[in-house]
Amino acid sequence: MSKLPNCPKCNSEYTYEDGSLFVCPECAHEWSLESGNENSEDQRIIKDANGNILNDGDTVTVIKDLKVKGSSSVLKIGTKVKNIRLVDGDHDIDCKIDGFGAMKLKSEFVKKG
Questions:
Q1: Taking Cα atoms as reference points, which of 45, 51, 75 lies closest to residue 62?
Q2: Is 25:17 a contact under the CB 8 Å cutoff?
Q3: Are residues 33 and 73 part of one domain?
Q4: Start and end of every Protein YjdM N-terminal domain (predicted)?
Q5: Domain contains 54
Q6: Domain containing 108: what range?
Q7: 30-69 pLDDT tens trace
């Protein structure tokens, strides 16, 4: 059995492999071995509802009808959102939607594609 590296964030020894990533079950930090030495602690991995990793500039599709706060309109299921920008915070996707304007979305309500 090969020795897996300790978590770079909390130094836990209980890390495990998930595909090409290493995951810490204690602090939920994820990192890859290649980028382990290149400030990967500053970079947050954001995933969609299906577990696909999202990047700046991706196109995503809304998977649930979403009420728009401060408005009586609804963002319908299947709405395509192009050229997303990932940001820190509870709503981790910043985007511009045709007919709605600038908006912030949660990654758990979109899928890549």
A1: 75
A2: no
A3: no
A4: 4-32
A5: no
A6: 59-112
A7: 887 765 444 444 567 899 999 999 999 999 999 999 998 8
Closest C-alpha to 81, from 51, 53, 111: 111
Q: DSSP readout, 32-70?
A: -STTTTTTTTSPPP-B-TTSPBP-TT--EEE-S-EEPTT
- pLDDT digit string (tens) for 43-54? 678 999 999 999
For position 24, which CATH number holds?
2.20.25.10
45-63 as b/e: b if 16+ CB within 10 A: ebebbeeeebeeebebebb
Q: What's the rounded Cα separation, in Å, for the pair 32 and 105?
A: 26
Phi, psi of 108 (to 5 degrees): -75, -10
Predicted local distance difference test score (pLDDT) of residue 66: 92
H-helix or E-strand spanning residue 86: strand 85-86
Residue 33 C-alpha from the chain's centroid: 19
Task: Based on the fold, state whether residues 65 and 24 are members of the same structural domain.
Answer: no
